[in-house]
Write a structure and sequence with these properties.
Elements lengths: L3 H21 L3 H26 L3 H29 L6 H4 L5
């Protein structure tokens, strides 16, 4: 059986990779995927702590985070597709102005 600290280290590593991707990348789709990676790293940590303490709160909270991530996927991909279809450049610095 694997030790729970290995799962926490994996969670921390995934979170750092996602955070670096959000800070470094300029493509909205890649930034979106890095945010999802950070959410999944948090889910892994929640599940690990729930397993360590043998309670259900972490697992229930993980289900809530998965539901929020699913709604984020729907809204985020719809915005990305709308921006792509309008012919605008897919650069975060230019998209941050939000002009019509």
């Amino acid at each position: 059986m694997l030790h729970p600290s290995l799962f926490l280290l994996l969670s921390a590593w995934l979170f750092v990779v996602g955070a670096v991707g959000v800070l470094v990348r300029r493509n909205p789709l890649v930034v979106f995927m890095c945010v999802e990676l950070m959410l999944n790293a948090g889910n892994l940590a929640l599940m690990t702590f729930a397993r360590i303490h043998r309670n259900m709160e972490g697992q229930v909270f993980t289900l809530v985070v998965i539901a929020v991530a699913a709604s984020e996927v729907v809204v985020g991909l719809a915005l990305i597709v709308a921006i792509y279809k309008s012919g605008r450049k897919m650069d975060i610095d230019e998209l941050s102005e939000l002009r019509g």
